[in-house]
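Protocol step 4 of 6.
Sequence for HNH endonuclease (Virgisporangium aurantiacum) entered exactly as in the expression construct, tag removed. Do not edit the line below.
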Amino acid sequence: MNQENGAVTKGSAGSDKPIEHRVPTPGTVRQLYGTAFACAKPGCRADLYTVNTDTGQHVLNSHVAHIHARSEGGPRWNPAMSEADNRDVGNLLLLCFPHAWEIDQVPDEYPAEMLRAWKRDQLADFERAQRNWQISDEEAREAVAPFDLGAVVERISAVVPFNPRMRSRIETWQLAIRRGHAMRVSRLTPLVPAERRPAVLAWMAAREDPLVEVPAGQVRVLVGRLGAGKSEQALRWWGQAVQVAANSPDTEIPLLLPARHITAGLESAIASELGGDPSGRCQVVIDDLDSVPLRDAARLLAEARQLVHTWPAVSVLATARPGILVPEEEKILVEPWPAQRGAELAKLALGDDIPWQLWNTEIAGLLTSPLTALGLAMRVHAGRDLKVSRAQLLADLATMVIDSQSHEVADGTWQDLARLAVRILGQSQPVTATSFGPLPLVRRLTTTGLVVGDGTELTFALPVFEQYFGSEALRMGLADVETIAAASSFPRWRYALAFAVSTAIDQDQERLVGGLARVNPAAAFWVLDEIADGSADRTHDGPSDEAIAALIGSRDPTGELTDEPDLAIRAGQWLRGAEQALLTGLGPLAESLARHRDGRLVQWGTWLQNGHMTLARSRDQLPPPDVIKLSKIWPSLGRWHRIEGIRFPTSDFGRWLRAQKALQEQLQTVIRRRTLPVPRTSRLARERLYLLAEFVYNSGAARRRRTIDLAELRDTVAAWMDRVNRSVRSTWQGTGRSVDSDDIRWLAAQLAMEDGDTLLPIWPEGDQPETGRWIWQTYSRELTLTQATDIVREALIGYRQLAETSFPAFGDALGLYSMLPVRVEGLVRRPVNDENASMIEMIVSLNPDRDAQRSDVPSVDLRLVPDDGDAFWTFSQQRRTAARTTFGQSPLQNLDLPLGHTCPATSLAYRWLVQDLAGVGWIKDHHGLLD
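Step 5 output, structure tokens:
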């Protein structure tokens, strides 16, 4: 053994054998234990020796760890350190066995500077508490001997009894440590050069900003935009729980579950990972809810809520982008980073500050998230311009990763990456390496750093790559808008489509949004909400004629509008094209939202001056031409059905946002009035018929008449129709409601098909004397149950008719419709002599009925329960595993029973429909439309 410059080497001076220093002396080890009592890792209070309080027997629970490795090539090896310094107390640290193992397994996360800080804190703790261990030379030699973590746990368990499941915990714990490290490394690999990665990992591990808090028995959701650092925050919360579990046998090893992997239900996934139900404190992360369709994301959150009620020691933290429905009390918004923090991260990844001459006004905004900060560092490293939008920065990440490869990327790799995106986005199950292609192809993809393979599944290293190559697949023709924007496919493809639209050139953007609008307006609305910024159109000053002409010229996907010489007509055609595309996609609903005649959109008239437009819709004139120029800025209403004044929209997606707003306003009006078309024989149509008939029949009457004489009603309606035909629009006011010309036209058409002499109420009155304060008190228990059963059944049928008649293109994107057929079971709680209860409450469970068809009459089984006791709670707990939601629609619902109302089935059917439409972004501020 030779000594050169204070270092000890094995073999001769020319030997290739690695350097290995001697172990610390027993005296040095005794000195260490004389100045410490517990593990040095912050947050871990594990004693250095474990003691059986009954027998007094103690066993070693710690190890002498090296800050700089004892052997060449080991963790944090310092070739300049002498053997004396390597064996000295300054290079030694006392840690519990799990953490001594961990710092050497993932040394990138535990740099020497961090470990020295731990040592200083450990010494400070000793100075305050004056607690230590006095050990023998034999025990000192044991503390520096190599150890096997599993064997150590077995030895401790023989002395200190603990949870029986702990015997296999150590392997689970070790796997958790590796999994967390692997997740961080896989995310950084494509973005940070290998030589800079340890510094970035250490910086991430040393961050001291507060961890999120999720109390036991609670669910929280980290919500932030792509690249905001949601997964990293969740990983830190999970990592803290891993450290606690290392020395707490009553705490489960925490679980890190990608949302896409939870295919058989959250409860089953947790039981599979743990080997049974949680037996103690258990922290669960559900990462990347955006990787699954919205209805599956909502289902997972619903199952998480049920889970924490069942096992109150469990807490769940999920990550999601904005758009998934999350109650405010569960939402944790991921705030933008201070630009200084992003600059620190970029400097670590780059190895130097971003050159000052490259700074511009956009950079500060791009430094507010970890992904874009690393993207900026990549652009500097690649010598690219930093004057770039966030969308373009993200779009360029994949190409920069490929360009940074030291080896040549094989031909066809780009297309194979796009094919992988199509496979991942096109199926709910994970994509296995063997199912995707031969081993050489898979290796070629993983070598790029863009794809990660864990032996069973292929995924993209970052969600942004999945979105990018999904959009590339669309550009290459490997996927088409008609297929991926369809109701069944869009939920998985939504972010890739938004990425494709946001990064396309102007004319392609219009072409893509137009295709979405014609195939699935709900998809178009979602993409617009995700990427469009209409703030430029909210100013009062109008754009110049030159700006309007330039916008249309640059974005017109056909080039046909430029042939129109009159700018007012050209501008009207531009706006009409967006509305017409959306109306085409809406199908049968279109005529309820925009003025039509003979199934065609009526002619428009426009006036344009100083960037402000008058837009008039004809009463009954059809094209051609589609748009004419008005003779004056504000024409009379004679030939025009509706006239509005607008500022011409000049933002990139301004015409689509204007069309969306106009159609949403009309839809909300139609929903508020409950006038969507349904079959004439529908219970909803019968309820509306009786509601309008009673209004007309009792207009001016001194006393309400429930049985309606049809002959008398027809005479009154005929008189009212005369007024309708002689006016632009007529309205009639009554107690609590009004009707208009459209209502009277509909009523007249319905009466023409009515048989018989009288029209009877759809729902019977109460069968008990009016002795109480509320209407429900006039209904017997038997009639209450009959009414409740019939109302729920007819509401389900009516909901299905509304969905199929007005929203056929939406299909399974409508939450409740995607669950049909269902059978209903539930409870009706009737108050007993309660003068403060204005309504009867119900709880219903909508269960899949696999033996039925969607068009079948649903089975409804309700029963009455007393209003005291816990019947409702028990009912919901028994059905916790069946609790699934679709776009915010839960199958376990609490409802009011509207006894005595004229249209109870209509109210409930529309309530379900409104919740579904809000879930897909079709309507805004929907709470006022529920009743």
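Step 6, annotate. The first strand starts at residue 2 and ends at 4.
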